[in-house]
Amino acid sequence: MTTALASPYAAEYQTIASGLPGQELPWLAALRSEALEKFSEQGFPSLRQEEWRYTNVSAIEKKLFSPAATVAGRSIDKAWLKLYQIQDAWSVVLVDGHFSAELSDLDELPENVLIMGMTEALIKQSETLEKYINKAVNAEEHGFIAFNTAWFTDGLFVQVAAKQVLAKPIQVMHLSTKPEVLTATRTVIVIDQMAEANIIETFVGLDNAYLSAAVAEVFVGQNADLTLYKTQFESEKAYHFSGTYVKQERDARFTHHNFALGGLLARSDLHTELGQASECELNGLYLGVKRQHIDNHTRINHLKPHGISRELYKGVLDDRARGVFQGRVIVAEDAQKTDSQMNNRNLLLSSDAEADSKPQLEIYADDVKCGHGVTVGQLDEKSIFYLQSRCVDEEIARNMLTFAFANEMVDKIKIKELHDMILEQVLTRFPQEGVNKEWL
Amino acid sequence: MLSIKNLHVSVGDKPILKGINLEINDGEIHAIMGPNGSGKSTLSHILSGKSGYTVTEGSVTYQGKDLLEMPPEIRAREGVFLAFQYPVEIPGVSNIYLLKAALNSIRKHHGQSEVDAMDFLTLVKGKVRLLEMDEKFLYRAVNEGFSGGEKKRNEILQMAILEPKLCILDETDSGLDIDALKIVSEGVNSLRSPDRSFVMVTHYQRLLDYIKPDFVHVLANGQIVKSGGAELALELEEKGYSWLEDAQAAA
Question: Number of CB pairs < 8 Å for A and B?
């Protein structure tokens, strides 16, 4: 544990602590100091931890990414922002970990809906937040969670009151604009019973090395419905961690779409706990090129009977990229009649690319229907010939099939503007010559 | 149109075709029949350019050019169309996308501009009606989740839109019920023209009740053992293939 104690982050903490929001709240001060202590002990996760065995984050520890003191809203290039922003949405823009009122748009919010930056929420909604912060995460789990709890500078708070159905999506932009910046944001999303919402989390940064370390805690109430999109388009030099921890009450429905395209080293945690007869659908697409390392970790915890979970993660890996999928499904003794299906499919486009896949089923109930499947492979030669026999060049046929493999996940996006934005990013970051999106 | 001379083809060390000779003129329909394992599918594969086969002897000339030298996509753009015995499912690529990509490749190959979007849609929808298909088919992924009959119909739809010169139908009637067979046959018959030729590879005589061939050839053990007119198919239905195989063995 001596390496962790030597973490330059823990040493630097005292110099930034006084600037963090919520200092005046005793409960938060206590959480932060506990988290700091935990992080000082644990450090960032190590390869010795089973759920981190494929992903080495020691490079982060060797550098020192520091939080930005203030928001730099004015310097943001609006045209750049627009590439990633949905126009028909309420938007919250966080720049280097600070809420920007100037760039955010929260006009005409319906009654019973709260959307605000975390700093503001800690002032106006501290009693509510006390009930939710650190309640969906397991603080013991790994160092990034404690790190975020101690370090977060701002974030997002959303609460949709019972029966409220949001007419348009909420988009939160996590922007990292400065070299060596630490962007640590904390998000709390509360969807009360029978309410429905679509929320988009977008991570994007300028072409710098930086660390984005976000944690979101999500509470989906009884019979409520939440679709959460994560679009991760970080810079090619960036380090990215984001953990989303979800609690679903009885009959709650949760759908997650995870597009992991960016980052030099990117890790995503998505854990959900299902109550009685609740349902979740987890979709993921990771595209790795050059030397990218993209790790997706999911955990579906069926706690009560009649839960349904569906999971499909697809990876396309080229050059020397490495993709990791670890999916754990746990069915508790009490969770009879659980129906769970998990699939991970990988397409390797280069002999130097690597896919590591580790699906795990842990079943403690005896009357359940659970399955999982993994494939790692190359393009199907029969399909290539079929396209060639329909006049398509071999190289374009390969590109079409690669694109089609990925496009299955893009096509699941029902919000047209978001669908088009993601498609554009997929084709920009992963250009497939000869694939004409105008024809799609 | 097509001239096959003394064609010998092997898979690995195993000879499959052992000296095929076949002349196909513009506008003719040739049926290639024969028992399982006679080399029928190999012949259609070798004409369309599938890899995995070695030509050890002989030649195939298509419109005066060496067909075997061309990669599969060039053959297709030059007008050779294979309707697959087992059409491949391509999730994520819609039928309409593939049709447009294919048609524009052919146009580009002939120095023409891309097809106008409205003209294309009119053309495609007309052909969809001809084959009694639902327009929704166009927006579904190529062959994904299609029934056997739908897949075969989709092959003929592609053929109708791409307007090839040499159509190779590989066991198109296998797995079709009589209603689907009638629709597919009508589709094929509507494409008959003086400058378009057909090679129908089939195990069953039934298809030839609906698409009347000019010539019937019997392939057995890698060679054409008998050729004749449409009446040969009826004789085969009555007598089976064994009398021809026996004759071949005796010779």
Answer: 81
